[in-house]
Design goal:
Layout: H1 28-38, H2 67-96, E1 105-107, E2 126-128, E3 131-132, E4 141-143, E5 148-152, E6 155-161, E7 168-170, E8 181-189, E9 196-201, E10 209-216, E11 219-227, E12 241-247, E13 255-263, E14 268-273, E15 276-282, E16 293-295, E17 298-300, E18 303-305, E19 309-318, H3 324-330, E20 343-345
Antiparallel strand pairs: 1-2, 3-4, 4-7, 5-6, 6-19, 7-16, 8-13, 8-19, 9-10, 9-16, 10-11, 11-12, 13-14, 14-15, 17-18, 19-20
């Protein structure tokens, strides 16, 4: 009894064809004739041909993002944005040429803190125009040579290094200090001590207002200062100023949301830290200093001072005093802020 494996010719079930290309079968008579002609017997069964190797499976997808592709897409998008901006900024450059030389700016990584609503972390450097457009289309900011706009996850920030050529200025005066107003910005200071200005307005003998940091009793503090009268020529004192502070909160390397308002009805200035009221004070009014809005410096005693070292982002101005509930919404404490700013920069 056999199972058909000892004598292949007697197998009841033919063997399946081998995978891959098959060698054609030569008839027996032709094999015999070839054998007589060549003096050798051809094999009685076809020579097996190995099937082709199976296709190589593609490697499993990597969990690591394709950073090169992402960088290329980002660069292409930036080039597209720069082309769109070219027409708009050309006219502004013509207007500013008499008063300001073209200045360089860039976009890239900056030290950033954590927290809800705060800008993100370090990012790559990419060139940007020297003009920073206002999102409302009202006021353009000119960047000095050592002032850089840097791209970060979720937005952009202005990076300043605390030198005389590291600042930015608006082309006009967007804040009317004779009316109520609110100014706000996310800030991160690199300096552990000293007076530093985030925002100020005025380029004459002194500022009208200054939002930034200072030292109170040897401890860092966030501050909002306003001048209530024009300084006398050559005066070195700050007697005609009112200051409100948030003490012990201006540690270097940490992000904070600074918001300051002037309510022209009760003549009150208020400083908010991270959306919460920190201090208020009455003022007789605010002196309307001549000159434009400044980012990263303030005018004092006919000279520039309080150079900011660190990052500034999400700069917004309102031509009214926001109430505490609106400022709380701005800080992400709840509610929705529906009042649109009259001017804003670096708000992505």
């Amino acid at each position: 009894m056999t199972d058909g494996t000892e004598h292949p010719d007697a197998a009841t079930t033919p063997a399946p064809p081998a995978a891959g290309p098959q060698r054609p079968e030569v008839p027996r008579q032709a094999r015999q004739e070839q054998a007589r002609a060549g003096g050798a017997e051809l094999p009685t069964s076809p020579v097996p041909i190995a099937p082709p190797p199976p296709p190589i499976a593609p490697p499993p997808p990597s969990a690591e993002p394709d950073w090169a592709a992402l960088a290329e897409r980002n660069a292409a998008d930036l080039r597209r944005r720069r082309r769109l901006w070219t027409g708009g900024i050309a006219a502004v450059l013509c207007l500013l040429a008499a008063g300001a030389a073209p200045l360089a700016a860039r976009q890239g990584g900056a030290p950033i803190g954590e927290g809800a609503g705060a800008p993100g972390a370090h990012g790559p450097a990419t060139e940007l125009p020297a003009l920073l457009a206002d999102h409302s289309g009202r006021s353009t900011v000119v960047l000095a040579p050592a002032a850089h706009v840097r791209e970060v996850p979720g937005g952009h920030v202005l990076r300043l290094v605390g030198t005389p050529d590291s600042f930015a200025r608006a082309a006009d005066q967007p804040v009317d200090v004779g009316r109520g107003f609110t100014v706000s910005a996310w800030v991160c200071s690199d300096a552990a001590t000293g007076s530093r200005a985030v925002l100020s307005q005025g380029d004459g003998p002194a500022y009208s207002f200054e939002l930034g940091r200072t030292d109170v009793g040897g401890r860092p503090a966030w501050s909002f200062r306003v001048r209530t009268a024009e300084p006398a020529p050559g005066a070195a004192d700050e007697g005609a100023t009112v200051q409100v502070v948030a003490e012990g909160a201006a540690a270097a390397g940490t992000w904070a949301l600074l918001t300051a308002s002037y309510d022209a009805g009760p003549h009150t200035v208020t400083l908010y830290l991270d959306g919460r009221p920190a201090a208020s004070a009455p003022v007789p009014g605010i002196w309307p200093a001549p000159g434009a809005l400044q980012l990263g410096r303030s005018r004092q005693h006919d000279g520039w001072g309080s150079a900011w070292s660190g990052a500034i982002g999400r700069i917004m101005l309102w031509d009214q005093a926001l109430d505490p509930a609106q400022v709380a919404a701005l800080g992400g404490a709840g509610g929705t802020l529906t009042t649109r700013p009259s001017a804003s920069w670096l708000v992505d």
